[in-house]
Write a structure and sequence with these properties.
With about 300 residues, the chain is of the alpha+beta class. The protein is built from 8 helices and 6 strands. The protein has 2 domains: about 160 residues, no CATH class; about 80 residues, no CATH class.
């Protein structure tokens, strides 16, 4: 926001970066929403004793699971789509925009009677009047590592956001070693934009699952197995939330929510830790597979425990 206020970052870029940031984190937000959505909704039924009436009518955890299966499976498919394709694309696009902002020397809106600054601050342009018929007063300060240049012109032959053609002006050039020199000109072209260098993309997070599978490296395998693990975790946690929502009317109605928070975040954190802990592909695979099996077993035991009568 500060860069936008100072004019160094166009507001269009800010909106794009915010949108891409939201898309990037959607693959984490969606599983959280599913898990706590099921947990809080069913917890409310238990607190109001509606779930007790449903269970007396033969509605068990398994029956509830079958009803919610479509939501859990649908959400898992959406998470898979985001993890495999949408999120990497958003990361790649955001990285390209940041690269463009960093290296592009462009003034996006050349306004009259304003100090217009380009992205990297190397040029400051002030134009009193862009009308070619009336007299103009133009001030341009350009700086780089070697020198500082100031152009003061009384006329403007043509202008756009990429170039200015100045007439009847003076150019002052200051170099620390050579001192100050000046040149009078009748016509001078000033370039306001540059060619952005190509971006070399080595970020493993910005590659789709198809690209990752083509790369034969430990890092690509770690990222691939991590994405698969987050999808599996969404599925398991969706079903785990159903028995975890169980609360007795005589108990603290929020106690199960704190327990669920512990299970959820420990699962996600362990996935991130284990996917980066080993340099051997087999160890990475086995560690994450055992983690999923443990949480699947815990979910199974929850269903057995909360389906017991009484």
């Amino acid at each position: 926001m500060e860069s936008v206020n100072e004019g160094g970052l166009p507001s269009l870029f800010l909106l794009q970066l915010l949108t891409l940031k939201i898309i990037q984190y959607s693959s984490l937000i969606i599983p959280v929403s599913l898990f706590f959505g099921i947990l809080v909704s069913l917890n409310r039924f238990y607190v109001s004793n509606e779930m007790l009436i449903m269970k007396l009518g033969g509605f068990s955890c398994k029956a509830i699971s079958s009803v919610l299966s479509k939501i859990i499976l649908g959400t898992t498919m959406i998470v898979m789509l985001f993890n495999f394709f949408v999120t990497p694309y958003a990361i790649n696009l955001r990285s390209y925009i940041e690269h463009k902002i960093l290296y592009e020397q462009k003034i996006y809106s050349l306004q009259e009677k304003n100090f217009n600054q380009n992205n990297n601050g190397s040029k400051i342009v002030y134009i009193s009047n862009k009308n070619k018929i009336e007299p103009n007063n133009i001030f341009i300060k350009s700086k780089n590592k070697e020198s500082v240049r100031i152009d003061i012109s009384s006329g403007l032959e043509s202008s756009d956001n990429n170039n200015l053609t100045l007439i009847d002006g003076m150019s002052y050039l200051y170099k620390p070693n050579d001192g100050l020199s000046y040149t009078k000109y009748s016509s001078q072209n000033i370039q306001l934009s540059n060619q952005v260098p190509d971006k070399i993309d080595n970020d493993i997070d910005s590659k789709s699952i198809l690209d990752l599978l083509k790369i034969n490296s430990v890092a690509s395998f770690q990222e691939s197995i991590k994405r698969f693990s987050l999808i599996i975790a969404t599925f398991i946690l969706g079903y785990m939330a159903i028995p975890l929502s169980h609360v007795n009317a005589r108990e603290d109605k929020y106690r199960n929510i704190f327990t669920a928070v512990l299970f959820y975040f420990s699962y996600i954190i362990l996935i991130n830790i284990l996917s980066k802990s080993f340099d051997n592909k087999i160890y990475v695979f086995l560690s994450l597979m055992n983690l999923h099996l443990i949480y699947l077993y815990i979910t199974y035991k929850f269903y057995i425990f909360f389906n017991q009568p009484g």
